[in-house]
Amino acid sequence: MKHFPSWSKTIGLMLIALLSFSACSDDEATVLNPPQITLDQEDNIYLTKINTPITIEPKYENAQGAVFAWKIDGKIISTDENLTFSSSKQTEVYATLEAITKAGTAYEELKISVRNLLPPVISLSIPEEGYKIMMGSSLNFKPEVEDILENAEWAWYIGDKKVSTDLEYTFKEDSKGNYDLRFEASNEDGKDEVIIPIAVCTPDELPFTWAFEQDKYFLSAGRSIRIPILNIENAFDAEYIWEVNGEEKQKNKDTAFIFSEKKEGEYTLKVTMKNNFSSATKELIVKVCPKEGTYERKPSGASIISWNKVYKFLPAPGQFVNENYTCNSMEEANAYAESRLAANGYVSLGGFGGYLVVGFDHSIQNDNDYNIQIAGNSFDGSSEPGIVWVMQDENGDGKPNDTWYELKGSEYGKPETIQNYAVTYYKPKAPGMPVMWTDNQGQSGSVDYLSQFHKQDYYYPNWVTTPSYTLYGTCLKSKTKETSPGYWYNGTFEWGYADNFSPIDRLTNDTNHNAGVNGNHFKISDAVTHDGKPANLKYIDFVKIQTGVNSKAGWLGEVSTEVFNVKDFNLFKNNTKKK
Prior knowledge:
Largest sheet: 6 strands, antiparallel
Distance between the termini: 68 Å
Number of helices: 3
Strand content: 35-45%
């Protein structure tokens, strides 16, 4: 470890001078903002080799005239803006950095890991059972490689044959068989490799699979609903036949059916898939319920302004999932979310698709104005938009098992907005690992593990017991960008999203520079049907908030909607009018 002189007396004198200057400036009208520190490593971990100096160069804001203090084991080792460090032995050093001005103090923690060797490290999402593909089809791979020395070389092999030296590779084979695709990354300090098992099959060897949102659907008389088939695999040249009570209604390649029977009652909906290799059948129940308003619950003087029950809390993987709480079932997760919200805390919905469903002790009325308030903690540069969905209790059973309607926002209908987007998350094989994901657009990635900040073993929800799970919803084009090295900016969406620094639906010009709790407001009249037409709902009973982007902001981690509260804004408006 490099030795440094004692800086205690020096920094003490500098602080006295700084405070003296502050005292002389009390009469100034300028309002100063506290300093900010941004480190350029995502997890605040810096790697170097023995006897190889590393220079850490933070980015500072509002730090004019600042005093800097770098500390190891509580001892000041430098008062420079940047730190150069080296060690003659393998070690891990935990350091802190303070930037002190008369407006406040910024603080960061970091780790410097000194290693004997720094070989590359590969990250790549691979299903436990490997891949199964049809002859002639292709798979594209683009691994993430941690290459501290920045001189790694790549190579792809099928068996012992080298097939590429690029980082990205597309596998395609016309012959049936089992293949081991191997990716190798190497530098002067060593190598890492991953082996990807791929079975190239004939069509009849690939089983057809599909899934449905639920087995029973409900809608009010006079309405229609879209019933989609999800997670279709190995359909090939499939045709789908839809029958209602034994009568064929649709026969084509469409993977969704619009149910629009008008008469009240229970219907059997049968869908059959047929291709040249196999067939499959699924029976569903659709119940046409009494007309809208039958089960409406008018608000009264005793109605509570906020939610009264959490019906489902299912986040996507994220840095706050499983942190300081343990849940082993959905019931326990719902109870946790209720306790957090009741204590004026927040629940984090994790990455894309994570959601929270709440209900109220009355129906929220549609008056063509703002009716719902959802509290988040957005501010300029930190918008983490949540899509909002609403539901009526159409069957009157008090459960959110009816039809969800999206509240359209400013991005609805734009070409870059993806409807019916789906992401599948895979449980890590060991603690402290990122959560890998794939989507229905052919993309893949990871929810990073941020060991410097959130040290729970897994970011994958503990109460999800399956090795993977899929979340569905509407995905907005991300507005996350790195405006300068290490400084990430989550841009604002115009209107219509929770936890979003909207200039319109926050109903205030407050800049919220302290990142306090603030609300976005929503109109039930913005609810749309499956085909984008106005739903014309007179009231709603349930609200769902769902993370609406699939993005991450470097060392800040995944973009994740936070929810502090959900309220009936009508009751607030009515109380205000009475005053």
